[in-house]
Amino acid sequence: MPRRFYITTAIDYVNGKPHLGHAYEKVLADALARYHRQRGDATFFLTGTDEHGQKVANAAAALGQPPKTYVDGIVASFQSAWKALELTHDKFIRTTDKRHEMAVQELFVRLKDARSPKSGLPVLFENDYEGLYCEGCEAFKQEKDLDERGRCLIHQVPPKKIKETNFFFRLSEYDEALLKHLENHPEFVQPDYRRNEVLNVIKEGLQDISFSRPNISWGIPLPPEIEGGEGHTAYVWPDALLNYLSALGWPDRKYSLWWLAKQNEVGGPGAARQDEFAELDGQGRPGAAWAGTAQPQFTNAFHLIGKDISRFHCVLWPAMLLAAGVPLPRQIYVHGFIYARGGGKMSKSLGNVVDPVELAAAYSADALRFYLLRSFPTGRDGEFTLEQFVDLVNVALANELGNLASRSISMVHRYLNGVRPADWAPDSLREPEARAALGALIAAAETAHREVPAAFEEIRVHDALAAAWAPVVRANELVERVKPWVVAKDETRRAELGTALNALLETLRLVALWTWPVIPQKSEALWSQLRLAGNPGEPRGEAAAPAYGRKPLGEPALGAVEILFPKIEVKAET
Ligand code: MSP
Questions:
Q1: CA 506, CA 513: separation in Å to the nearest integer?
Q2: Is the pLDDT of residue 365 over 60?
Q3: In angstroms, what is the span from residue 307 Cα to ligand 1's centroid?
Q4: What's the pLDDT at 574?
Q5: Whose CA is nearest to atom 10 of ligand 1?
Q6: How confident is the prediction for the chain on average, in pLDDT?
Q7: Cα gap 177→280, rounded to integer Å
Q8: Which residue among 127, 289, 320, 432 is the one 20 to 30 A from 410 at the CA level?
Q9: How many Å separate Cα 331 from the centre of its chain?
């Protein structure tokens, strides 16, 4: 049944060019979005850039540029990087978009009117504050977040002492509501090991959080409705988080088109019903009711983010939504980090940033996408090394899939004048090993047909690719067992030859479908060599199932062989 799927990535800071870590998250989101489109789900994929705050203002100042000029330049490099990596986002949001800025101001107006769930006090309040602010994190730090020399553990620089009057968000009162939601909806934060971290953070107690900055001009001004807010700009996190709603048109009701869904239309398991939100809200607000429908609605948003920003997404964001009377997202999926060699963090200051655009230009975007999604179990940390990348491209892509495609199509050209065989007589295979190999291939394809979608649904993209690879390996074994170059010499063995080549072509068709979300360009190139109708990314329902031995699909004659994945000959640099 077709569903609705709203997927977002974190929006990237624009104080430098995109690196491999940013690319990992975006490629993972793109593969999930493509998977959903391919199965016929109405899909909206959002990504973008987070452009305000001191960090960005500093980067602009260092170049002697006005912030907007600076961000326009860097944003272009993000957009062209995502194009080079074949991202298919439906919208690229910038927090400097006028529409977004107005939505953030509306958020502050709603927060001004909101009351906190325990004491009933205003959610937004003014207070003097003295604290240690790390510009790298764009967050106030506590002593426990610093090393023995008083430096931020992540950025290894001492935070700045700041004393000012700020507007605060009364986060401290949302612990119970959040714990209850996490208990009732274990799927809200995934994987489970990340959810446990979030539960611990909440159980340790939450602190109110500064929501405005008085002395930072590069930000969204608080709206005039906030008394005493002149000269203040919004803190970058509420500004940035709101992108997930502002991109859909919030506060206009139309945002609910993607944010919510009907029961059976939800993009994944475990959605929460709207009527739970009225209770959670703690203010008797109608929650999702102003989505304006009498039908029960379920939440549908899926946020993909990295582990360093899980507190902001799993604690602050839902608390803000509760305060503003907006239903919570369906799921926040927290992925790990891609580290540079030796396990270190990739950072501009450390000079060990791996440029995803250079890698894609040198080895193809699909090779990079495949590496990122196949090498590291989805969600876990990983370490990038060029050797492993080259190795995977050469073994899995060039030797296994590339070779299967080129040898299968070449044999059809060589032995059958390029015409797709219609023969199907598995029992005609003379050698028992050949018959067993064909049986194993068909069984592997049946398994992959079940396992690939199941793995995508559960965000195990590495498993989806592993499942898709089993038939590739089996098909190569079939070639070795049947030895078509021997069979082809004997006219009386024509049915054997046709059966084997038929099985290989059907396997290639299936592999193109299974791998399209990850390696779209190569899957499409393979599809066109196979002269199949349409595009592998189109929804095809039952026609996506293994169809060994049924009437051949596609045009009678195959296209010319083209090498999909050239073997990388260069010796990897060390
Ligand atoms: N601007 C904030 C996010 C605001 S979302 C409302 C931010 N930006 S970021 O540029 O620092 O990071 C963007 C995303 O990339 C985050 O999800 C972050 O976890 C992810 N990654 C940054 N470095 C990474 C790796 N080395 N590996 C994998 N993902 C990493 O945080």
A1: 11
A2: yes
A3: 8
A4: 46
A5: 12
A6: 92
A7: 6
A8: 432
A9: 13
Indicate the pTM of the whole model. 0.93
- Ligand 1 midpoint to CA 309 (Å): 7
Nearest residue (CA) to ligand 1, atom 5: 10
Beta strand 298-299 pairing with 260-261:
antiparallel
* Backbone φ, ψ for residue 14 (5° rounding): -110, 35
What are the catalytic residues? 19, 22, 134, 137, 152, 155, 345, 348
> What is the rounded radius of gyration, in angstroms, for the C-alpha atoms of the chain?
27
User: In a mutational test of the pocket of ligand 1, which residue from 309, 339, 341, 371 has the highest number of ligand atoms less than 8 Å from its CB?
Assistant: 309
Model pLDDT, residue 8? 98
Task: Find the distance separating the first CA and the last CA of the chain, reported in whole Å.
Answer: 49
Least confident range of 63-67, 69-73, 181-185, 400-404:
181-185
Helix (H) or strand (E) holding 489, with range, is: none
User: Which amino acid, 489?
Assistant: K
> Quick check: 292 pLDDT over 60?
no
Q: Exposure pattern of 74-102 as b/e (b: 16+ CB <10 Å)? A: bbeebbebbebbbbebeebbbbbbeebbe
pLDDT at 82: 98
Question: Which of the listed residues 7, 9, 14, 25 should we mutate to test ligand 1's pocket, taking the one with most ligand atoms within 8 A of CB?
Answer: 25
pLDDT (0 to 100) of residue 288:
41
Q: At which residue do the structure tokens 């209850």 appear?
A: 180
Q: Which of 157-166, 205-214, 226-235, 369-378 has the lowest mean pLDDT?
A: 157-166
Distance CA 416, CA 171 (A): 71
Cα 25 to Cα 188: distance, rounded to the nearest angstrom: 19
Q: How far is the CA of 26 from the centre of ligand 1 (A)?
A: 10
Pocket test for ligand 1, best of 9, 246, 308 (most atoms within 8 A of CB): 308
Is 360:84 a contact under the CB 8 Å cutoff? yes
Tokens matching residue 12? 């990237």
Tell me, what amino acid is at 484? P
